[in-house]
Amino acid sequence: MNRRTAARLLLAMLLPLVLGGCWERRELNEMAFVLGMGIDKAEAGYRVSLQVVIPSAISSQVAGGAGSGGVPVVEYAFTVPTIYETLRKFNLVSSRSAYLGHIRVLVFGEELAREGLGETLDVLKRSRESRMDFYVMVARNTSAENVLKVLTPLDKIPASKLFNALDKSYRISAKTVAVSLDEFIEDLLAEGNNPVLTGVELSGEADKGEKKGNVEQTTPEVRLRYESVAVFRKDRMLGWLKDQETVGYNYLTNKVVKNSGSVAGEDGKPIVVESLQTSTKRKVRMIGGEPHIFIDATLTSNIQEVFSTDNLEAERQIEKIERKAEEVLVTKMKNAYEGITQRFNTDIFGFGQIIYQKSPKAWYRLQQKHGDDYLRSLPVHYKAKVTINRIGTIDRTILDEIKE
Fold first, then answer.
1. Per-residue pLDDT reduced to its tens digit, 109-138
2. CA proximity to 100, closest of 165, 159, 22, 162
3. DSSP state, 371?
4. Do 75 and 50 contact (CB within 8 A), yes or no?
5. By CB neighbour count within 10 A (0-12 exposed, 13-18 middle, 19+ buried), where does 104 fall?
């Protein structure tokens, strides 16, 4: 009887755990789904913008219905002393509660980024609702609020446009970086590493971009585009990279998926080479008791466009193009490292981190000897291997035949 009584009591104690699955439920019609969030600096704290989707406006896309025909999103902006206060103010103007579980992009204003982002990250990292896989970016030459106002023609939801465009651009151009909130915080806290974020800017007048007419013409008056990459030292933004510095940085950090560039043929005219598979290995070797960084980049490429009269049928000529492409790549990586170090003196490459992982003692000796200036005295050795697999469906340029 004692065993039966004990079993019944245990079952009675465990049963509430099984039945409590819906205690925190919320109906869909009670929630406002926030897809984009912007945070700018304000005199009394922050200016927080929320881009909220309007379900009835996109119902035609979801279920094939007619939809309301209006704009697909609405933006709410609040000046608040703390980020969390935004959610309380939202409920004063909306019949629904803001839900952060589907955020696609987080945009920081440049002024706030230069002042420091540390205080703004706590509420987002602490929240149980928001996922950490959305992309983070910095509004360049404008405010985050203005960026989230712009309606876009191809993607009905502007936040989705920003997410999808960044997700594709970094894979193709190597002129942007796609950084999620989790990755940003990880780089921020890592020993011997500093974060970067892509910049987004708008062309045209922001007030016109929020009107439906912006997407009802073949050439929108206001467009969003990604421009440059912001460099940080811990949570403070220092400045912007140049295009070629961004490309070199991505090669140095093994973040290139695809990229294209040109080399000069024998006649000085360009031959466009596209890298389809890229791998950069980074190693630390101790030489004379000092750490040295060794960069080894390997590219598998195709020839995509030819202005030169070089004979691509000859294997010897292909080998010359490969050697030239290797020289160009080494120059890009070297110039990016030296240029970024000279201008910002911040380790966005993570060289300090791989030294720390290899030998914590060597890292601390380097810190004691050079402090934050260790990059300027750190020897970096570059090596590149380019293999051209294909030259297209023709060997010679058709320009030769046209001239004949």
1. 999 999 999 889 888 888 777 778 899 999
2. 159
3. G
4. yes
5. buried
Q: Write out the DSSP string of 240-291.
A: E--HHHHHHHHHHTT--SSEEEEEE-TTS-EEEEEEEEEEEEEEEEEETTEE
pLDDT tens digits, one per residue of 61-103: 544 444 446 788 999 999 999 999 998 999 899 888 888 888 9
CATH for the 244-403 domain, from 2.40.30.110, 3.10.350.10, 3.30.300.210, 3.40.50.300 = 3.30.300.210
Instruction: Identify the residue whose tokens are 């990016």.
Output: 336
Q: What is the pLDDT of residue 1?
A: 55
pLDDT at 64: 45
pLDDT digits (tens, 9 = 90+) for 344-357: 999 999 999 999 99
**pTM of the model as a whole:** 0.87
Question: Structural domain boundaries of the chain?
Answer: 28-240, 244-403
Return d(Cα 185, Cα 167) in angstroms, integer.
19
Tokens of 301: 């490429």
Q: What is the DSSP string of 138-170?
A: EE-SS-HHHHHH---SSSSSHHHHHHHHHHHHH
- Amino acid letter at 129? E
The neighbouring-strand residues paired with 36 are 51, 105
Q: Which one, of 372, 180, 400, 245, lies nearest residue 310 by Cα?
A: 400
State residue 67's pLDDT score: 45
Find residue 51's DSSP bridge partners.
36, 75
Distance CA 279, CA 296 (A): 8
Amino acid at 68: S
Residue found by looking up tokens 């040295």 in the block = 292
Do residues 79 and 151 lie in contact, with contact meaning Cβ atoms separated by under 8 Å? no
Q: Is 179 helix (H, G, I), strand (E, B) or coil?
A: coil
Per-residue pLDDT band at 395 (split at 50, 70, 90): low
Query: What does the alpha-carbon distance between residue 279 and residue 300 come to, in Å, rounded to a whole number?
Result: 9
Candidates 75, 68, 86, 72; CA nearest to 51 is: 75
Given a contact cutoff of 8 angstroms between Cβ atoms, the answer to whether 147 and 224 are in contact is: yes
Burial class (CB within 10 angstroms; exposed 0-12, middle 13-18, buried 19+) of 85: middle
Cα–Cα distances in Å, from 102 out to 63, 131, 165, 189, 338?
20, 7, 17, 25, 40
The gap from C-alpha 42 to its chain's centroid, in whole angstroms, comes to 25
